[in-house]
Specification:
The protein is globular and about 55 Å long. The chain has 12 helices and 13 strands. With 328 residues, the protein is of the alpha/beta class. Strand 1, helix 1 and strand 2 form a beta-alpha-beta unit. The protein has a domain of 224 residues: 3-Layer(aba) Sandwich (Rossmann fold), CATH 3.40.50.720.
Length: 328
């Protein structure tokens, strides 16, 4: 039995990861300040004898140092995420993401604990070299646009993780998540799938930002969790960057129509200009498609869950809540 520390473990991905690790007989420590995570995500795990849940952030270095010292592997998932959150609070986004990652890596450097650092497909920015490869160039927009502050902060996280390996021999792995979806994801911060589903179940028209022709690749959280576990035990993963995604590409307009069909909702689609949804001059990426050959080769695992399957279980999960939070 190993001990895993998950920062941000009460979040969407973190709670699923914690559940999987507990099911396998491991000891799990969750550290979460609940700024974006939710107690509801882990309530069903709270009575598990192998789970420790600590409400706290990464600013208490003494606490973090103690937890890292007791752990075999650290999953660093805690971050400020979501387009709405990023645009409204760019200072907090940059400080939380870079500062939190630096603290985790510094604590891990004492005992040389393995750290899996969660990054994002956002770091590819405006690159048109699709599908995106981990060794490809990254093209971010200007610093005058707050929209790019999240991508920039996560890219610094990646540089920090790899630098700690080179300079301090901390075994680090960087994972770039591509639009992970599934049960427990909230639309509160702008995530499109739970937002669409909630609108459909309420009988509201789905709001598509822009013209809806921008494409994305959506990845089931169960596939992401499987990759995270395999990468943690794979020596060949150390000091490398991995795309975690499902290469199936779909436009946001097509996604909206698929959600309408799967929910059976009698609703339409409203198209909202970017400048009205976000802010003037907002920039978006037209395509975001991952090349996953590296992670498949390293772990022997490829995505098993289709978009339709994942949307189905997510719809069932949101429908079971009966009461739904406001859609931003």
């Amino acid at each position: 039995m190993s001990t895993y520390l998950i920062t941000g473990g009460a979040g969407f991905v973190g709670s699923h990861l914690a559940e999987a690790l507990l099911d396998q007989g491991h000891h799990v420590i969750i550290l979460d300040d609940l700024s974006s995570g939710s107690m509801g995500n882990v309530e069903h795990l709270r009575t598990h004898g192998a789970l420790e849940f600590i409400v706290g952030g990464l600013k208490s270095f003494s606490l973090l140092e103690e937890l890292v010292d007791r752990s075999d592997v650290i999953y660093h998932l805690a971050a400020s995420v979501g387009v709405f959150n990023i645009i409204e609070s760019p200072v907090r986004t940059v400080e939380n993401n870079i500062g939190g990652t630096q603290s985790v890596l510094r604590a891990a450097s004492v005992r040389k604990r393995k750290v899996i650092v969660a990054s994002t497909s956002e770091v590819y920015g405006k690159s048109v070299d699709s599908p995106f490869r981990e060794d490809g160039d990254l093209v971010l927009g200007p610093s005058s646009k707050a929209r790019w502050s999240y991508a920039a902060s996560k890219l610094v996280d990646e540089f920090l993780a790899l630098a700690y390996w080179r300079e301090h021999q901390v075994p680090t792995v960087v994972v770039r998540l591509f639009n992970t979806i599934g049960p427990r994801q909230t639309g509160q911060y702008g995530m499109v799938v739970p937002r669409f589903i909630t609108q459909a179940l309420r009988g509201q028209n789905l709001t598509v930002f822009g013209n809806g022709q921008q494409t994305r690749c959506f990845t089931c959280v169960y596939d992401v969790v499987e990759w995270l576990q395999r990468l943690a035990s794979e020596k060949a993963a150390i000091a490398r960057v991995f795309n975690l995604g499902n290469p199936r590409e779909i436009s946001i307009e097509e996604l909206a129509r698929l959600v309408i069909r799967l929910t059976g909702a009698q609703v339409g689609i409203d198209y909202i200009p970017y400048e009205k949804a976000y802010d003037p001059g907002f920039e978006d990426m037209e395509r975001r498609v991952p090349d996953i050959s590296r992670v498949v080769e390293t772990t022997g695992y490829r995505p098993r869950y289709s978009l339709e399957e994942t949307l189905g279980v997510t719809i069932d999960s949101i429908r079971a809540q009966q009461t739904w939070p406001p859609v931003p």
